[in-house]
Amino acid sequence: MDSILYWNGVALEANRRDFSNVPGTEKPAPEQGGPTLSSRALAIVHLAMYDAHAGVVNIAALPRYLATPPNPAAGASAAAAVAAAAHDCLSALFPRQQSHFDVALQAAGLTGAGVTEGFKFGQLIAKAMLNDRNSDAPAHANGYFASNAPMHHRPDPANAAQGFHAPFYGAGSKCFGVTARHALDVPPALGSAEYDKALKQVRGKGIAPQLMGTLPTTYTKRTVDETLVGVYWAYDGPRELGTPPRMYNQIVREIAMKKGNSVDDNARLFALVNTAMGDAGILAWDQKYIHDVWRPVLGVREHDGSMGLTAPTPPTISTTTAIPPGCPWVRPPATVRIPISHHHFPPTRRAMPPLARRPFTPCACFTAWQRATGRQTRCSPGHSCLTNTTALPVTTRA
Question: Is this structure's pTM higher than 0.85?
Answer without folding.
Answer: no
